[in-house]
Specification:
- The complex is a heterodimer.
- Chain A has helices at about 30-35, 45-60, 145-150, and strands spanning about 10-15, 15-25, 70-80, 85-95, 100-110, 115-125.
- By secondary structure, chain A is of the alpha+beta class.
- In chain A, strands 1-2-4-5-6-3 form a six-stranded antiparallel beta sheet.
- The mean pLDDT of chain A is about 90.
- Chain B is mainly alpha-helical.
- Chain B has two domains: about 1-60 and about 115-130, ACP-like (Non-ribosomal Peptide Synthetase Peptidyl Carrier Protein, Chain A, Orthogonal Bundle), CATH 1.10.1200; about 65-115, no CATH class.
- Chain B has helices at about 5-20, 40-55, 60-65, 65-70, 85-95, 100-105, 115-130; strands at about 75-80, 80.
- A two-stranded antiparallel sheet of chain B has the order 1-2.
- In chain B, helix 1 crosses helix 7.
- The longest helix of chain B is centred in the N-terminal third of the chain and has 16 residues, at about 5-20.
- Chain B is globular.
- The chains are: A alpha+beta, B mainly alpha.
Chain lengths: ~160, ~130
């Protein structure tokens, strides 16, 4: 994960479910163009927020030993616009997890109203892709996102919680 | 939990409609998962996960889709075709697939055709109603 798109976790139940927060601000430059005079958060970035929330949940379930890559968007349905000033709650739940992959179910909520429903699949790439080799180091879970985990009191990779 | 083949087929159709985004009339018993229904590798895991939930079974991927493990072995594959030993292994590991047509020309590129909707029904039928 080389960039971080969620602000913090408010709930984290290892191997089960998590809730993260994303605050949308007018200071995000892409919102000026999407769209001029009508700023809304691009829906693809809502998928990204879900992929990060659910991806960390899946990664933590295997102690961050797997390289967890978004492999499939099973469902992405959007019900409302998300605008600057909104706080999105990103709810993710693990549906199934195996050695090779995991599937998650998710919902994005703002002010108690459903903004989106997003179900994803993640691949543990070292266990897949028929012998393709990847770098030894876990390039998915980097220092960058450890900061968010630390601030949220969620266990990160090789991280002591105080 | 005993289920009739019709009930199993109906559940499998639901699984494939959700996992692959196909229409119900495409999911015929003869349809091949890859060729006809467009399944890719991650979809096989998706199908396994959904079948586990639908039938309340634990399904190791290599039991339902054992061909992947065969492909990497020189003993089983020679010049792009399955050897006699490879075919025997396939018969042992995939009793739920009908390999009679494949045997005539065991080209590894056609191995995907063995994964049919009917094979999934056979697999579940054997597990639930043995």
């Amino acid at each position: 994960m080389r960039w971080i798109w969620i602000d913090k976790f408010t709930e984290f139940n290892s191997g089960k479910n998590a809730v993260a927060i994303k605050n949308i601000t007018m200071a995000e430059e892409h919102i000026h163009d999407h769209f001029p005079g009508f700023p809304i958060m691009p829906e693809c970035l809502m998928i990204e927020a879900m992929a990060q929330t659910a991806g960390i949940l899946v990664g933590q379930a295997r102690d961050y030993k797997e390289k967890v890559i978004l492999a499939k968007i099973n469902k992405a349905v959007f019900f409302r616009y998300a605008k600057p000033g909104d706080t999105l709650e990103i709810h993710a739940k693990i549906n199934s997890i195996a050695d090779e992959a995991a599937s998650t179910k998710g919902k994005i909520v703002c002010d108690g109203k459903t903004v989106a429903e997003i179900d994803l699949m993640f691949s543990h790439i070292d266990q897949n892709l028929a012998g393709a080799e990847f770098p030894e180091e876990n390039f998915v879970f980097t220092e960058l996102f450890s900061v968010v985990l630390r601030n949220s009191g969620v266990p990160g990779p090789n991280m002591e919680l105080n | 939990m005993a289920m009739s083949r019709e009930q199993i087929l109906k559940e499998i159709q639901e699984v494939l409609i959700d996992a692959l985004g196909v229409d119900d009339d495409e999911v015929t018993p003869e349809a091949t998962l890859m060729g006809d229904l467009g399944a890719e590798s991650i979809d096989f895991l998706d199908i396994v996960f959904r079948m586990e939930k639908s039938f309340d079974l634990k399904i190791p991927r290599e039991e339902l889709f054992p061909a992947e493990a065969l492909m990497g072995s020189e003993e089983y594959v020679k010049d792009g075709k399955l050897t006699e030993k490879g075919l025997q292994e396939l018969r042992d590991k995939m009793p739920h697939s009908d390999i009679s047509r494949f045997e005539a020309d065991p080209d590894v590129n056609k191995i995907g055709d063995l994964f049919t909707v009917d094979a999934l029904v056979n697999f579940v039928d054997a597990r639930l109603n043995k």
